Structures are given as C-alpha cells and as structure tokens.
C-alpha cells in the first residue's frame, strides 16, 4: 500500500541561542499507510506532539524530511488537518461557523460551504446544535465540533493530538467508538489517521499499528502491529497481553540504550511530579504489593485513571529517588519506599530529604550553593541560568518549580516569592 | 442526507409585527437626522464671520445632533486608525518600536493641545468652508477617543492565544480572513468597551473643542459646546440649566440605546466559559423580538461573510505559493534604513523644536513653566488624596452590598459620562459670590469628572470578593483593623491603584479647562500649567503652546514611570 505520510530521519533541535541546542527528536522514521490508523504513545516529553506539529506543517524539522504525497511538508496543506487536544474552537463562532472555517480558507462558495458543513455536523452527531456557541456545549460535544471541522475539508490525513485526553472517561469512550464507526464507513477512501494517544488502551482500541516512543531525545523505540480484529474487547486476554507488552517496552527503554542503572545529572529533565501524587502513588503501590510481588503498572493506571505519560512521570521519579523500582511494566517499592510508607509525616520528610540530596544532583547543587553563600540565600535567576545550560527556558522554569516544591516539602530550603530567592531559613 | 437552505423559510413566512414598525420608524428617523446634519457641515464660511448661536432651548436638539455627528465621525476615524496602525504595530516588530512609544506619549498630551496645533492647518486646507474648523474639532475629539481604543486593540492582538493562531494556520486562513474571523472577534469585547468609554470621555472635550479660538478670532461651531460657551458669555443661567438637562437626557439615551446593547452583544465574544452576561439590555431584547431587524441582521451577516471571503483576499489555491525571495541582507538593509530614518527624523524634530522654543521664549520662561507645572501637580495630588479619602470607604461599603453596588455602578457610570465642565459655571457663580480663593478652589473642578473612576474601581474591586471568603472572614472573627489589613486591603489595593491612575490622568486633562474659567466678562485664573496653555493658545503663540504641552508631557510621563508604574506592578504581583 502506498504511503500517505513518510518520515525520513527526522531530527528536531530547539535552538535557545547561538551556542545551546536541545535535541528533542532524533532520527525518527516511519510512515503512515493508506487506510491506516497509526497511534503514537510515549512518555511525556518524548516529542510526540512536536512530531505531530511537524507533520501538520506548523513546525519545521531541523534535519530529515516529512513527506506528504512525496513532497516535503513546509507549511500547512489542504490534505492534512488536525484535531486539537483542547478543541481550539473559536468561542465567538457558532458550531456551524466553526465547522465552515476551513472551507472558507479553501475559498468554497457560500452555498456549498454551508451544505458541506451541515453534512459534517450531521455525520458527527451534532444535528440540532448548529447555531449553538461552543461554551454552551460539553467537552465531548466540543470535541465533536473539532472533529467535524477537521473532517469537513475532506483531508487525506487526519492528525489527532491526544483528542480524548481532556474528556472524562465515559465521554471519551463514546466518542472513540463513534470515531471508529465513522472511520469504517470512510475507510474505502484510503485516508489515514495519525493519533497521538495518552493511553495505551486507547491506542490498542483504535490503531492498526502503534509507534512506541522513547524519550530524551524522542526516538522510535518500537512499532507494534495490532492484529486483534474489531470490535476489540479491552478485557480479552490478547488485548491485556498487548497492553502489558507496550508497558514493558515503555519502562525498559533505559536498559535497551544500555545505561543500566539510572544516574541522572544536573540537567536531567525532571518530569512533573507533585508531592501529593507521589505520596499517593507510594501508598497505593504498598497496598497492592503483597509480600514480594511487583505490581502491574496497567492495573495502577486503571485504578488511578491516570494518563500513561502522567503515571510514567511519577514512577520515573520514584525510580530516580530509589523509592521504587520500575521494570518491564511492573513497579515495586524498595526498602526505603516501604519505610517511607510506614513513617509518620516528620520521618517521611526526613527520608524524602535524604533521598533528594543523594539522588537528585540539582537539589544537591542548590543545597551546596545555599550553604556556601554568606547570607544563605540565592536568587532564583541564578539557579535558572545554571539550568538553562541544559534545558529550554520553559523546561528550566518547570523543573525549578518542581524542585522548589520538593525542597519545601523536605524542608531542605525555603523560597520567598516576592524576592524570588531561595534560602535556608525556616519561616518564623 | 437532508439538505436545507439556511433560514430561507424565515423570509417566506415573514409578517411584520408591531415591533417592526416601531423599529423601522426609529431607524429611519436616526438616518434622516444624521444625513441632514452632515449636509450642514460643509456650509460656506469666511474667517471672521460670526456664527450666531441660538440660546433658546428649542435649538438644543439640533446642536446636540451636530455634536453627536462629530463624535461619530471621529469614532469612525479612530477605528480605522486602530485597525490599520495597531495591527501593524502588533504584527511588525520594527513598526512596533516606533508606533507604541509615540502613542504612549500622545496619550499623555492633553487633548485640547492638539486642537490649537492643528486648527490653522485644517482651515487653510478647506478655505471658505466650515469644513476646516469642523475637521479641527473632529480631530480633537478623535485624539481623545483614539489612544485607549488603539492600545486596547493592540494589547488584544498581542494576546491572541497561540492555540487560535495555530488553528487559523492549520486551516490555512488568509491574513485577511484571520483578521476578521479571529483577531477582531477576539479583541471585540475590549474594543467595544473602550469605544464606549471613549464616547463618554469625549463629551467632556466636545464642550471645549467646539468653541475654537484661532488668532484671537472666535469660531463657534454649531453644537452643544458652543451653546454653553455663548451662555457663559451672556451669563445666561437658564440656558446653562437647559444644556445640563439636555445633556442628562442624551447621556441616559446613549446609555440605554447604544452603550448597553453593544456591550451586552459583545459579551458573547468573550472566550471565558460559563460567563453569564454582565449587562442586561432591554433594547437588545426588543431588537431580538422584531422580525424585520432579525432579517436585516442576517443580511448583514451574509454581507460580512462576503466581505471576509472577498476573493481578492483569498489564499491562492495552488499548493506552491510564489514566495517573494528577498535576500536576507536586503531585508536587513531595509530594517537598518528604517531605524536610521526614524532616528534622524526625531533628532531633526527635536532640534527644530528646541531651536524654535529657544528663539521665541527664554530660559526664565521655561523655568516659569516648570514652576507652574509644580503648582498643578500639587493641586492634583491634593485632590486625589481627598478624593480617595472620600470614595474608598464609600466604595468598599457599597461593594460589599451587591444589590446596592449594582445601582450605584450604573449611576456612577452615567455621572462619569456627564461632561462635568457644564457645571463649572455654577461653581464659578458660587466662588464669585463667596469671594473664594480660586488658586485653591479650582482644584475640585479638576476632580469633578475623573473622581468616578476611583469609585468605579473600588466598587468593582470589593465586589470581586467571593461570598464564601467573606463568610470565612466572619467565621474566624476577623474584624476591625485586622479585617481591613488582611482582608479588604489586599483585594482592593490593585483596583485602587488602577482607579488612581485613571483619576490622575483625567485630572491632568481637566487642568486646561479647570484652571481658567469664565463667567461673562469675569475670568478666574489660577496659576498653573493648564491655565498657561489655555492662555497661550488664545494668544496663538505656537512656541509657548508647544513648550507648555511638552512640559506637561514630561510631568505626566515622569509620574507615570516613577510612581504609578512601580505601584501598579507591585499591585499586579499580589493578584
């Protein structure tokens, strides 16, 4: 079958300034075939969305090529349309006007535009909502408009950026199955869907093939074929087996690269992991973990209703802090993790502090600076400058925000927002 | 698949109802008045010819019509100016570097200053016609409307969420389509609000800009401003009272027929979710009820649709666009050339101005003007403090009572639109009667108009406190000074600063009319920058006008950047 989209050795480097570069995507090659649904899954920060933006023509690859109809994509083109994660509907346009937007850009005459838009609205099940404004609609309905808007221009390739992740579970389920129905009707046209997914189950439910992304920098780790016939049953053994396999792929990547044990440096791109969620996860694992048994990650994801990338962010941090160990789709608390779980609040803080100092170089770095400085203070700017040697501006800020939260919880250091200074003082 | 021809069934079954008749009559009347007023504007006129102003109350509607017409024309130009230049500034970095500072400074130049500078040019542009003075007056009104509309729109364009930008990009809207489908609608709530505020503030300056003095020659353009001017000249208290009553009626009508419907309508463009419309408008409800107007609305929608999709502005269909490949070094060269020209021009302008001022005035004069500026500053500071002491507690008291706040806000809004300089003669009579010191008593005149902004903001700030926070404070027994310091003050402070900035800005603008007032042949004068500018304008001495305006600009900018901006930043950080 012919390729709709072909990616050849795509590399994306974000340039911060003349000297510093940040490699986000490295050597990404795969293709989307005619009539195929392809899903991309991966940890947060593996550059999935960046890749989608490159295919949409919103961003240019630093090296390599993204081809559509054998021509490099340099800007948005009529044959490719995009469904946004946060819907991106114009609040001042009615449902009908929103759907018409892409047709207007194509210069379709008013009458035909209206007919096609109405038809798309009917197809997606929004009949009766034509004159409603987006804010009158629920999230699920809004995303239907987003899908109608993308479909009405009759694209050959439909890109979807985590289209169901802002919806509640029930709504997402419903919309997903509607999309599948719609798709099987359209399939004869040989169009393709490329979907970035936040959940492994969703990917398996929808896709013909799944591209598993590894992170730092983003790269294709594996491409998994889904050979379960539709309609797929989430509880069937073969489905569960595939879920486990993909979890395993996603959690063992470090070993494949050959790093063996996790050692992080100052510039490590710490994932988002709020304290309360970390603690909650530790408690949950402890509960599930009977004697010496490791706990299945899919089970935890299910129980917490967490997106895969959010969950993996948390487990990654527990792994770094040596509070738990993740391997092959399982997770298990370490001795320290168990001790932490049983401790009272003060002891917990102490354990957390020791582990932070031992395993997170950035925390050690800040702590040392604070102890060395004569007034035991350091400006946030100073630390940010250090961080920006390794990370993008936004990432540096995000990482520092997490570190400050952890530091505050562990009572290692305090932070004064009005002076923007970190210090060793305890608040009076 | 069902096929429908949109809305055509409505046309087929249309039968006029009573509301339609009323609406059509009203519309027809409005159009007839406006077009008649417009024909009057180009009447022949010779310099020095006296224009009679009729002081009978029956002449007032005509004068008000002329005044409104001027305001509408000025608004049209202000919008055009905003759509073009503000867009340019938002999209092009190099244009922005020049345009924004200029607007920032123009903003601080007292509006009436523009009148004195431009009138001569306009008169020579249209000799033997009233169009010259008309244009000058319209230009003056334009200058008091344009800047805040401009800056508001610019600000909106700069804050269009990237998500929307991307959507427009993915679906390949042309720049023209993007402007009308994304950028203007996004900016619309702020645009409408600023337009309405501009209309309100322009009443104040209309009164002052219709009676123009050029080279000691007084031109009275037919309008409510001239009416007041002549009434003052003739010491006709009755006429002044008529004008005040007429003004109140006009402002009430404006509020109900224009302001509220437009703001109400623009609220649907707000991007926030689940926001209930803040303003209610019976006229909008009424318009919704008329069938014909609904049809007219749809006709407009279709026309707007065609306008947005004009084929000239469509993105070309071919996949490969012919991109103008200008070599980067030429682009760079153009940019450098641009900055070179701008810097040279501004240096040249500066030197010329300095030279001119130095030639026609002296160093002592310059020092004198700075001293006058200091007096005016003192006055403004004093009245703003007094105004805060009065309005802050009242504002908080009102703000804590939602029902009262609702009414007080509406009334304060009306007051703020009312041109307080209409009341000046009454105050003057009172000052003359009790032989009060005008050096001191001119200060309250300055604050008469702008004080409402303070009240507005305090009420608005206090009303933002959620009910449950108030309950929490009560529950924990937070009262007295603690209640003020830990509860009310942190919430209201940012709003107080915003209010104070607006009030001070208004007060500076008002100095020109407040520091020198007339009643018949008596003229009360306080020493200050405002009275200086008014006097030298009457003398027609361009250099001194420029000097006075320049110094005022310096004072305003100085306080803006050294006092208000830091305070504002401090306040903004807290929230």
How many individual helices of chain B?
22
Parts with pLDDT < 50 across at least 5 consecutive residues of chain A: 255-261
Structural class of chain A: alpha/beta
Q: Total domains of chain A, how many?
A: 3
CATH hierarchy, class of the largest domain in chain B: Mainly Alpha
Strand order of the largest sheet of chain B: 1-2
| Termini separation of chain A | 70 Å
Tally of distinct domains of chain B: 3
Strand order of the largest sheet of chain A: 6-7-8-3-9-10
- Major sheet characteristics of chain A: 6 strands, mixed
Number of strands of chain B: 4
Number of helices of chain A: 16
Largest interface: A-B, 33 and 39 residues
Helix content of chain B: over 70%
What overall form of chain B do the CA principal axes indicate?
globular
Name of the CATH architecture of the largest domain in chain A: 3-Layer(aba) Sandwich
Write structural notes for this entry.
The complex is a heterodimer of chains A (428) and B (575). Chain A is built from 16 helices and 16 strands. Chain A is an alpha/beta fold and 428 residues long. Chain A has three domains: 174 residues, 3-Layer(aba) Sandwich (Rossmann fold), CATH 3.40.50; 65 residues, Orthogonal Bundle (Arc Repressor Mutant, subunit A); 77 residues. In chain A, the strands form four sheets. Chain A has a six-stranded mixed β-sheet, sandwiched between helices. A four-stranded antiparallel β-sheet of chain A has the order 2-1-4-5, covered by helices on one side. In chain A, a hairpin with a 4-residue loop joins strand 9 and strand 10. In chain A, helix 2 crosses helix 3, helix 9 crosses helix 11 and helix 15 crosses helix 16. About 2% of the residues of chain A have low confidence. Chain B is globular. Chain B is 76% helix and 3% strand. In chain B, strand 3 and strand 4 form a beta hairpin. By secondary structure, chain B is mainly alpha-helical. Chain B is built from 22 helices and four strands. Chain B has a two-stranded antiparallel ribbon with strand order 1-2. In chain B, helix 3 crosses helix 6, helix 9 runs antiparallel to helix 10 and helix 20 packs parallel to helix 21. Chain B folds into three domains: 224 residues, MetI-like (MetI-like fold), CATH 1.10.3720.10; 36 residues; 215 residues, MetI-like (MetI-like fold, Orthogonal Bundle), CATH 1.10.3720.10. The longest helix of chain B has 37 residues. At the A-B interface, helix 2 and helix 3 of A face helix 7, helix 8 and helix 12 of B.
């Amino acid at each position: 079958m012919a390729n709709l989209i072909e990616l050849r050795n795509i590399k994306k480097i974000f340039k911060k300034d003349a000297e510093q570069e940040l490699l986000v995507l490295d050597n990404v090659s795969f293709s989307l075939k005619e009539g195929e649904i392809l899903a991309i899954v991966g940890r947060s920060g593996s550059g999935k969305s960046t890749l989608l933006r490159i295919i949409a023509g919103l961003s240019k690859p630093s090296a390599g090529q993204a081809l559509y109809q054998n021509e490099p994509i340099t800007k948005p083109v009529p044959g490719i349309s995009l469904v946004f994660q946060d819907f991106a509907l114009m609040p001042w346009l009615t449902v009908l006007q929103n759907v018409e937007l892409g047709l207007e850009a194509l210069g379709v005459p008013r009458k035909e535009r209206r007919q096609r838009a109405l038809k798309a609205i009917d197809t997606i099940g929004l009949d009766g909502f034509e004159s409603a404004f987006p804010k009158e609609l629920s999230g699920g309905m809004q995303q239907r408009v987003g899908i109608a808007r993308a479909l009405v221009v009759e694209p050959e390739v439909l890109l979807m950026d985590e289209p169901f992740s802002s919806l509640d579970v029930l709504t997402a389920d419903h919309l997903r199955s509607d999309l599948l129905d719609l798709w099987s009707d359209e399939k004869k046209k040989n169009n393709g869907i490329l979907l970035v997914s936040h959940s492994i189950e969703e990917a398996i439910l929808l896709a013909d093939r799944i591209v598993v992304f590894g992170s730092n920098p983003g790269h294709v780790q594996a491409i998994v074929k889904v050979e379960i016939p539709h309609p797929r049953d989430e509880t069937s053994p073969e489905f569960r087996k595939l879920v486990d396999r993909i979890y395993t792929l996603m959690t063992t990547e470090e070993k494949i690269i050959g790093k063996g044990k996790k050692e992080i440096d100052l510039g490590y791109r710490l994932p988002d992991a709020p304290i309360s969620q970390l603690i909650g996860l530790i408690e949950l694992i402890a509960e599930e973990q009977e004697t010496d048994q490791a706990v299945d990650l899919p089970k935890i994801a299910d129980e917490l209703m967490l997106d895969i990338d959010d969950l993996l962010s948390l487990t990654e941090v527990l792994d770094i802090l040596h509070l738990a160990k993740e391997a092959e789709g399982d997770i298990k608390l370490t001795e320290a993790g168990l001790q932490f779980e049983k401790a009272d609040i003060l002891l917990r803080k102490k354990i957390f502090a020791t582990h932070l100092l031992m395993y997170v170089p950035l925390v050690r770095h800040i702590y040392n600076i604070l102890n060395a400085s004569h007034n035991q203070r350091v400006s946030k700017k100073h630390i940010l400058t250090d961080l920006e040697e390794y990370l993008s501006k936004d990432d540096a800020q995000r990482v520092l925000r997490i570190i400050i939260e952890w530091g505050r919880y562990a009572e290692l250091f305090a932070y004064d927002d009005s002076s923007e200074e970190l210090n060793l003082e305890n608040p009076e | 698949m069902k096929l429908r021809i949109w809305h055509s069934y409505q046309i087929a079954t249309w039968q006029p109802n009573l509301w339609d008749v009323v609406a059509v009559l009203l519309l027809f009347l409005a159009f007839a008045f406006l077009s008649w007023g417009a024909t009057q504007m180009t009447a022949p006129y010779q310099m020095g010819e006296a224009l009679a102003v009729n002081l009978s109350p029956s002449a007032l509607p005509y004068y008000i019509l002329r005044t409104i017409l001027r305001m509408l024309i000025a608004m049209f130009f202000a919008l055009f100016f905003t759509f073009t230049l503000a867009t340019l500034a938002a999209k092009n970095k190099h244009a922005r570097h020049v345009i924004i500072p200029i607007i920032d400074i123009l903003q601080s130049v007292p509006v009436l200053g523009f009148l004195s500078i431009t009138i001569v040019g306009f008169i020579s542009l249209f000799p033997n016609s009233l169009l010259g003075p008309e244009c000058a007056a319209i230009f003056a009104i334009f200058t008091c409307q344009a800047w805040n509309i401009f800056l508001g729109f610019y600000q909106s364009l700069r804050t269009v969420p990237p998500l929307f930008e991307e959507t427009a990009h993915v679906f390949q809207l042309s720049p023209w389509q993007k402007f009308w489908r994304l950028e203007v609608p996004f900016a619309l709530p702020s645009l409408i609000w600023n337009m309405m505020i501009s209309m309100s503030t322009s009443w104040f300056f209309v009164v002052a800009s219709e009676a123009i003095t050029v080279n000691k020659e007084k031109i009275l353009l037919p309008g409510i401003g001239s009416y007041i001017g002549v009434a003052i000249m003739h010491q006709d208290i009755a006429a002044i009272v008529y004008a005040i009553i007429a003004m109140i009626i006009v402002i009430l009508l404006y509020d109900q027929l224009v302001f509220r419907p437009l703001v109400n309508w623009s609220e649907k463009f707000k991007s926030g979710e689940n926001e209930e419309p803040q303003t209610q408008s019976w006229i909008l409800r009424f318009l919704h009820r008329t069938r014909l107007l609904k049809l007219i609305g749809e006709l407009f929608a279709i026309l707007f649709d065609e306008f947005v999709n004009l084929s000239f502005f469509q993105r070309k269909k071919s996949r490969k666009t012919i991109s103008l490949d200008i070599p980067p070094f030429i682009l760079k060269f153009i940019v450098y050339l641009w900055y070179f020209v701008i810097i040279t021009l501004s240096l040249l302008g500066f030197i010329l101005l300095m030279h001119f001022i130095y030639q026609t005035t002296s160093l002592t004069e310059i020092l004198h003007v700075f001293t006058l500026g200091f007096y005016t500053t003192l006055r403004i500071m004093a009245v703003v403090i007094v105004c805060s002491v009065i309005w802050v507690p009242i504002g908080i008291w009102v703000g804590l009572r939602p029902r009262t706040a609702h009414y007080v806000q509406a009334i304060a809004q009306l007051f703020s639109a009312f041109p307080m300089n209409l009341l000046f003669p009454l105050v003057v009579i009172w000052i003359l009667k009790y032989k009060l010191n005008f050096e001191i008593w001119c200060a309250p005149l300055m604050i008469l108009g702008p004080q409402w902004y303070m009240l507005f903001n305090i009420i608005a700030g206090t009303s933002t406190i959620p009910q449950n926070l108030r309950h929490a404070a009560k529950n924990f027994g937070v009262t007295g000074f603690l209640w003020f310091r830990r509860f009310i003050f942190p919430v209201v402070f940012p709003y107080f600063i915003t209010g104070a900035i607006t009030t001070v800005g208004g007060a500076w603008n008002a100095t020109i009319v407040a520091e020198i007032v007339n009643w018949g042949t008596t003229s009360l004068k306080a020493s200050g920058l405002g009275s200086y500018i008014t006097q030298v304008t009457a003398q027609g001495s361009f250099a001194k006008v420029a000097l006075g305006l320049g110094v005022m600009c310096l004072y305003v900018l100085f306080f803006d950047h050294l006092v208000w901006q830091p305070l504002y930043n401090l306040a903004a950080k807290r929230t």
